């Protein structure tokens, strides 16, 4: 038991009067900086990032707790026009997250402003207050930020607009203050030391998938899924077997590379990130498996964690 506050680590304490809690959904177009924003708020890497669009596929939960309350952030895939069953699942995750939210943070890249057609679906779900965060203020001047905001504010019925830089952490403390001011009073949903509701093996699979975006070009990263087959924690090392699922036999050869060089490089880089995340030595073994048209196969999608 803690000597300072009388609570047992891992349990949810009884909050003081005035304690705030709620769900805040982060949404926006692909590559607007949603995942960078979540990682910056939490001070740790939960959502994978890459220079390529549509890196995020799942709804990622990130939990910020302090003496004022608890904010449960929901990082969502960038909205898109579905081409596969996988895309339908991703967009359903966005819509469900909007419905679950107490507050919506719309992240905007001034260089890629959504059109009215892009946001037509949002009008149906726009029942919660919306804060517009014009991101990448370190890269655009004030005039560009203002023009981008003016284009989209009427489409979102924005409560307030802020310019931020998730990369440089500019404006984030003030934003957290504002969010707490808008959330209802209520108890925490999770223990105060918990950062996410996802298990470690989920983040391990995401870190492997992140390397697909960095190591391969064109369609390859978008055609792959990653599954953790075994996850064995030993005192001095964690042993992980994982499989990368591809859509076609020709893609398997590309992922493996000549003499296995490409897969070896991916495994080396992924292992470094996993060791940093788990804070332990890791043995990582990766296989490549072909599952044709898995992105349109409901059974495969569910087995790979796309249950929305």
UniProtKB/TrEMBL annotation:
Where in this protein does the record put region G3?
Answer: 75-78
InterPro entries registered for this protein in UniProt? G_ERA_dom, GTP-bd, GTPase_Era-like, KH_dom-like_a/b, KH_dom_type_2, KH_sf_prok-type, P-loop_NTPase, Small_GTP-bd
Q: Which residues form the Era-type G domain?
A: 20-185
Query: Which Gene Ontology molecular function entries are recorded, alphabetically?
Result: GTP binding; GTPase activity; ribosomal small subunit binding; small ribosomal subunit rRNA binding
Give me the ranges of the annotated region G4.
135-138
* Stretches assigned to the KH type-2 domain: 208-292
Asked if the record carries the keyword RNA-binding, the reply is yes
User: Can you say what this protein is called?
Assistant: GTPase Era
**The organism of origin for this protein:** Cyclonatronum proteinivorum
């Amino acid at each position: 038991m803690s000597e300072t506050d009388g609570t047992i680590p891992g349990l949810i304490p009884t909050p003081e009067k005035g304690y705030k809690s709620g769900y805040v959904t982060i949404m926006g177009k692909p590559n607007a900086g949603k995942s960078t924003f979540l990682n910056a708020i939490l001070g740790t890497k939960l959502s994978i990032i890459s220079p390529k669009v549509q890196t995020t596929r799942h709804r990622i939960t990130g939990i910020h707790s302090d003496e004022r309350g608890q904010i449960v952030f929901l990082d969502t895939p960038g909205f898109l026009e579905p081409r596969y069953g996988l895309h339908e699942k991703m967009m359903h995750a966005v819509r469900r997250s909007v419905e679950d939210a107490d507050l919506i943070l719309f992240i905007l890249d001034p260089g890629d402003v959504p059109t009215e057609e892009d946001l037509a679906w949002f009008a149906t779900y726009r029942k919660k207050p919306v804060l517009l965060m014009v991101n990448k203020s370190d890269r655009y001047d004030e005039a560009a930020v203002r023009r981008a905001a003016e284009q989209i504010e009427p489409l979102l019925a924005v409560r307030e607009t802020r310019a931020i830089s998730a990369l440089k952490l500019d404006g984030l403390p003030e934003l957290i203050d504002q969010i707490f001011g808008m959330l209802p009073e209520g108890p925490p949903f999770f223990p105060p030391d918990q950062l996410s509701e996802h298990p470690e093996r989920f983040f391990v699979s995401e870190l492997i998938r992140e390397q697909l975006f960095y190591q391969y070009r064109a369609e390859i990263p978008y055609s792959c899924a990653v599954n953790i087959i075994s996850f064995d924690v030993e005192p001095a090392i964690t042993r992980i077997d994982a499989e990368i699922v591809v859509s076609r036999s020709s893609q398997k050869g590309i992922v493996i590379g000549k003499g296995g060089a490409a897969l070896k490089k991916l495994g080396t880089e992924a292992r470094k990130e996993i060791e940093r995340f788990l804070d332990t030595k890791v043995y990582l073994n990766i296989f490549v498996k072909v599952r044709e048209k898995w992105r349109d196969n409901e059974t495969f999608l569910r087995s790979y964690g796309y249950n929305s």
